Inverse folding.
């Protein structure tokens, strides 16, 4: 049988993935033995049994592989496979649904086994089911596993019910989000530098899923792609390069916070870390070879697919080993696993040491780098500057002022989350409000003025094959009905102000102060609400049709009035917000938390005036420019039709004047008493 025909055999098509799964399980089991994760409990301690000790890492390996494949299949179908590759485009979501179901089932089984491991009770023992139902949601690691499985089920349902490419894209996005809670359930969640470890693990998981899942999806879909294989491989290669960088950097960060020094590399945990490093280096070399050699040959001759298949089979095998090692690593105790006992109550509540009292220079000297938002800001700056350079190199111009504003916006954001407001804002209401007002009112205006959507539309090529590239995704989002609703000036104003009120006068505020998830969601909401509000008022990017400047000014003044009322209400309040936190955190340099809260209300009121004035000035400028543009449009129209409007207007005035003159003559004749016949 010919190679082309044999490549289409289902058994051969699945062989590399089967090998990947076997290698992953084998590597997982070997690493479990080396790390001692499956050893029976010490005498005197409750042992959940061999089924749990060996079953947990195996189920987790299956879970990770199926999750990666689900993400890869959904996203590949949305962003890489052209419309004309109909067979592959139809097959990808179906396979994604199957792997997604496996993901959900293995996730739920992992929760059951995880509860048995924590409780030290074998599965099926008397009372196990009742204990599980009673306590499973109260255990954070198990709760995050349930949330992840629930989100994965939503992704599968979306792909199964709606078959459009847009639905598959949303399914892929939800699948990526479903991976994030696992970072809170991993062993990084209990290490020192809790938030850094969790952030690093989140980046690591998403990067791995996109990398491994995309490659596995390519292997499954290769026979159906045919001549479109080079295009899809090239698009995946870009994703793989970013994924490799993400996995490598996040892996280094995660390992650093889990070990106390280089000496820990001599432990079993360190040996497993080194094995992961070797796997990543090998994968990087294979990926580079694929980009240099295989993609070029596929462009010349798509029939050289067997070369690609052989390279991918080896790469998947190494990936399987890496996944197996990582899975076992999660069951292996590390030298720096347990966080030391918190020195203060503030450290226990926030996971950060209590900051010393601020002085006059603390605004500039106090820093604690936030790895999540700092990384987001640095990447945003790099992408924007890189896009501007690409435009310049191809001969297009991009205003340097917009680039400066963009960079300054993100530097301001970094200061608000990593500088004094971010550090002191963890324990002080007034400093927290400074950070909030900066993120929600100053940074968004600068971001909007930088016109990032216009830059994306100009620099990214327009795809004509039905796939969603960066340009299609961004423009499709800003022109969607969802954004049209939230970008309505009235809705944006209500969201900006009442979202503020709901947040501070509900348990959400305390949740943001005491949990990493709550803190992240708080910043996301502040930034997006502020960006939407600024966009509908002074934005120049494509999007929903904007109201007239006069109406936008009315919305601005109404919104800022409510915002000022919010600041005054906090300033005059006698009730402490988030009392479960501020009443017990006991910071020595904040003797009166209620007074500090009132200072925060004054800051909310005062800081809001400057951005409001800037927005008002920009709106007036837009008003003047719209009048000038209308005048220029009228002048151009007059030049084209020889001022037909003015000529018609003058003719009408002349007609009116003639009519008035005739009427005046008749009235005068009537007043003189002339006979009717003579007047006629």
């Amino acid at each position: 049988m010919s190679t082309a025909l044999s490549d289409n055999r289902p058994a051969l098509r699945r062989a590399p993935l089967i090998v990947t799964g076997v290698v992953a399980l084998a590597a997982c089991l070997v690493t479990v033995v080396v790390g001692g994760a499956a050893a029976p409990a010490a005498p005197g301690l409750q042992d959940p049994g061999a089924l749990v000790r060996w079953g947990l890492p195996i189920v987790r390996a299956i879970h990770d592989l199926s999750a990666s494949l689900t993400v890869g299949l959904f996203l590949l179908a949305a962003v890489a496979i052209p419309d004309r590759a109909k067979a592959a485009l139809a097959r990808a979501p179906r396979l994604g649904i199957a792997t997604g179901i496996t993901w959900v089932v293995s996730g739920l089984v992992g929760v059951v086994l995880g509860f048995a491991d924590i409780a030290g009770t074998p599965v099926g023992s008397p009372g196990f089911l009742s204990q599980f139902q009673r306590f499973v949601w109260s255990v954070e690691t198990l709760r995050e596993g349930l949330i992840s499985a629930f989100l994965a089920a939503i992704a599968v349902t979306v792909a199964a019910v709606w078959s459009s490419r847009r639905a598959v894209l949303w399914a892929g996005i939800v699948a990526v989000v479903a991976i994030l809670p696992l970072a809170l359930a991993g062993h990084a969640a209990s290490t020192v530098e809790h938030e850094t470890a969790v952030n690093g693990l989140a980046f690591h998981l998403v990067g791995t899923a996109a990398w491994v899942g995309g490659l596995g999806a390519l292997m499954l879909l290769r026979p159906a792609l045919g001549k479109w294989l080079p295009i899809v491989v090239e698009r995946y290669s870009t994703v793989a390069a970013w994924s490799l960088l993400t996995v490598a950097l996040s892996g280094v960060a995660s390992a650093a916070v889990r070990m106390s020094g280089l000496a820990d590399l001599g432990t079993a945990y360190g040996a497993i870390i080194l094995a992961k490093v070797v796997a990543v280096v090998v994968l990087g070399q294979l990926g580079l070879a694929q980009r240099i050699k295989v993609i070029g040959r596929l462009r010349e001759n798509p029939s050289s697919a067997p070369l690609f298949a052989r390279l991918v089979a080896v790469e998947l095998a190494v990936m399987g080993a890496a996944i197996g090692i990582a899975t076992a690593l999660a069951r292996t105790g590390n030298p720096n696993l347990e966080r030391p006992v918190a020195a203060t109550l503030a450290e226990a509540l926030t996971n950060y040491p209590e900051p010393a009292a601020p002085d006059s220079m603390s605004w500039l000297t106090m820093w604690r780098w936030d790895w999540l938002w700092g990384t987001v800001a640095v990447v945003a700056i790099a992408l924007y500057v890189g896009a501007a350079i690409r435009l310049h190199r191809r001969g297009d111009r991009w205003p340097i002022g917009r680039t400066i504003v963009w960079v300054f916006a993100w530097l301001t954001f970094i200061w608000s989350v990593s500088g004094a407001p971010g550090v002191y804002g963890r324990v002080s209401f007034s400093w927290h409000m400074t950070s909030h007002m900066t993120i929600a009112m100053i940074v968004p205006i600068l971001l909007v003025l930088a016109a990032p959507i216009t830059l994306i539309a100009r620099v990214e090529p327009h795809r004509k094959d039905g796939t969603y590239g960066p340009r299609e995704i961004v423009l499709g989002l800003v022109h969607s009905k969802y954004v049209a609703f939230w970008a309505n000036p009235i809705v944006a104003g209500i969201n900006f102000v009442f979202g503020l009120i709901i947040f501070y006068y509900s348990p959400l505020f305390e949740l943001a102060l005491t949990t990493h998830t709550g803190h992240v969601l708080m910043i996301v909401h502040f930034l997006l609400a502020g960006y939407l509000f600024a966009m509908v008022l002074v934005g120049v990017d494509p999007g929903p049709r904007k109201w007239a400047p006069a109406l936008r000014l009315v919305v601005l003044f109404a919104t800022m009035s409510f915002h000022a009322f919010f600041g005054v209400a906090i300033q005059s309040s006698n009730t402490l917000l988030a009392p479960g936190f501020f009443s017990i955190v006991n910071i020595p340099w904040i003797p009166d938390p209620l007074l500090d809260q009132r200072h925060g209300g004054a800051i909310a009121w005062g800081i809001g005036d400057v951005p409001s004035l800037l927005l008002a000035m920009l709106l007036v400028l837009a008003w003047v420019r719209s009048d000038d543009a209308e005048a220029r449009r009228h002048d151009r129209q007059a030049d084209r039709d020889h001022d037909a409007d003015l000529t018609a207007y003058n003719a009408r005035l002349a007609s009116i004047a003639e009519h008035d003159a005739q009427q005046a003559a008749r009235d005068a004749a009537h007043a003189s008493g002339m006979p009717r016949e003579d007047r006629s």
User: Anything to note?
Assistant: The chain has three domains: 24-125+133-329, 345-638, 645-679. The CA atoms of residues 68 and 209 lie 4 Å apart. The two ends are 111 Å apart (CA to CA).
